[in-house]
Amino acid sequence: MSIAVLGAGAFGTALAISLAGKGAVTLWARDAQGMGQSRENTARLPGCPLPEGLFVTEDLAEAAKAQTLLAAVPMQKLRGFLRDHAAALDGKTIVACCKGIELNTGLGPVAVIREVLPHATAAILTGPSFAADIARGLPTALTLACADKTTCATLQQSLTTANLRLYRTADTVGAELGGALKNVVAIACGAAIGAGLGESARAAVMTRGFAEMQRLAAHHHADPVTLAGLSGFGDLTLTCTSTQSRNYRLGLALGRGEPFDSATTVEGAATARAVDALAHDNGLDLPITAAVAGLVENRLDVASAMKALLTRPLKEE
Ligand SMILES: NC(=O)C1=CN([C@@H]2O[C@H](COP(=O)(O)OP(=O)(O)OC[C@H]3O[C@@H](n4cnc5c(N)ncnc54)[C@H](O)[C@@H]3O)[C@@H](O)[C@H]2O)C=CC1
Ligand SMILES: O=C(CO)COP(=O)(O)O
């Protein structure tokens, strides 16, 4: 099966590097900036040479000739990207590789693909995976979700690599919610550590954040097993505990009262606002998400967010 990765950020490049280990792969870059010549993505993934078998192009129509297309652009850019290239992409198998909820619609990546490309088959690849780890050949395991079970099994075979072990599920909703929400919780955990609240506080925030992930997933009729898997619990533990995570680092900066580079891709910021709005509209109790939305919108500081969380009415676990 021919494969192209659309989007040459850190993650798209890392996936292309891993996939090129078992066959030819095309990487579409909006602005290749000499990547084809230097054989390195110096802007997003420095120090990771592009292997033979990885073909870089700025021509989307060329890349879209592949049977399977991995869409690795940030969540808030996904709809525009799909719309801009709908003629080339509709009818294809599109695997979303982004994590988040769209701000204006409350939809996840699979739902956005289905809305913009009604004839495409939509799937999502998500789970604990730092781009730099994947590109260096370090091993991890991911969730591959697609509602069509036959396509899911085929994709599982073709996207599994020497260092990426894929588990499959038909629960696309659970997979995309886990990947989206863990970033929100990671911002909260970073804020707790950044503000000096300690590792016990982080563990409490992670656990109650996971409860919020499960609550939102239940509202959307996702399978709780998916949330307990790689795309939910797995990615939550990684992202809430590592300074490799940009979401966690944004939280650290908020907790320390330090500035943060606004050009960095931090999916949890918009997702917190999107999910907070969803919670309000649907009467869902998601206090950590609300606190993160307040933090990223500068309506709240970490001390008042923590106080608000600690003084909520007492309840059963
Ligand atoms: N970096 C990582 O370790 C991981 C990232 N992801 C997910 O992958 C997605 C992308 O993240 P990264 O690659 O890390 O981001 P990045 O910041 O490294 O790169 C983003 C890329 O998207 C491109 N882009 C932005 N707007 C675009 C548009 N309208 N059309 C086409 N291309 C556009 C940029 O040119 C850039 O190459 C995010 O949803 C992230 O959560 C998932 C797992 C790991
Ligand atoms: O999703 C990721 C790891 O699985 C990457 O996390 P960040 O986007 O926070 O860097």
Task: Describe, in plain words, how this protein is organized in 3D.
The mean pLDDT is 97. The strands form 2 sheets. The chain has an 8-stranded mixed beta sheet with strand order 5-2-1-6-7-8-9-10, sandwiched between helices. The protein is globular and about 55 Å long. It contains 16 helices and 10 strands. The protein starts with a strand and ends in a 7-residue tail after the last helix. By secondary structure, it is of the alpha/beta class. The protein has helices spanning 10-20, 35-38, 60-63, 75-84, 86-89, 109-116, 131-135, 149-159, 172-194, 199-219, 224-227, 230-239, 246-256, 267-282, 287-296, 302-310, and strands at 3-6, 25-28, 40-41, 45-49, 54-57, 68-71, 93-96, 121-126, 140-146, 164-169. Helix 9 (172-194) runs antiparallel to helix 10 (199-219), helix 9 packs across helix 14 and helix 15 (287-296) packs antiparallel against helix 16 (302-310). Residues 99, 128-130, 183, 186, 235, 238-239, 245-247, 267 line the site of 1,3-dihydroxyacetonephosphate (13P).
